[in-house]
Specification:
Elements (H helix, E strand, L loop, with lengths): L1 E5 L4 H10 L5 E5 L4 H13 L4 H6 L6 E3 L5 E2 L26
Parallel strand pairs: 1-2
Antiparallel strand pairs: 1-3, 3-4
Length: about 100
């Protein structure tokens, strides 16, 4: 099963969630639903090198995907999903570049 960390207030996350909804291949983990979800994500974000560049940019790093083999990626395509097209509107980043 592929885990997807995200938030319902993030347009990139909701775009991915719509694609994964109802597919048992994916587990959607809403960071805003429970503090334990947020803590698990922060532990991952604070220690995994996949987030190094994102943290330097000041971004959160969601949606985040943990593939079945344990690989951590921020690219929906690696999880069999599509990224939200830039022309789909604003992102949750202050500079509009992503989440």
């Amino acid at each position: 099963m592929i885990k997807i960390y995200g938030m319902k207030t993030c347009p990139d996350c909701t775009y991915v969630e719509e694609q994964a909804k109802g597919n048992k291949k994916y587990e959607i983990i809403d960071l805003g639903a429970q503090v334990s979800n947020l803590k698990a994500f922060l532990r991952l974000r604070d220690t995994h090198p996949a987030f190094d560049a994102i943290k330097r940019l000041g971004a959160v790093g969601i949606p985040c995907f943990i593939l079945e083999d344990g690989t951590v990626t921020l690219k929906p395509e690696k999880a069999g999903l599509r990224s939200r097209p830039k022309e789909k509107g604003p992102s949750c980043s202050l500079d509009g570049s992503g989440c």
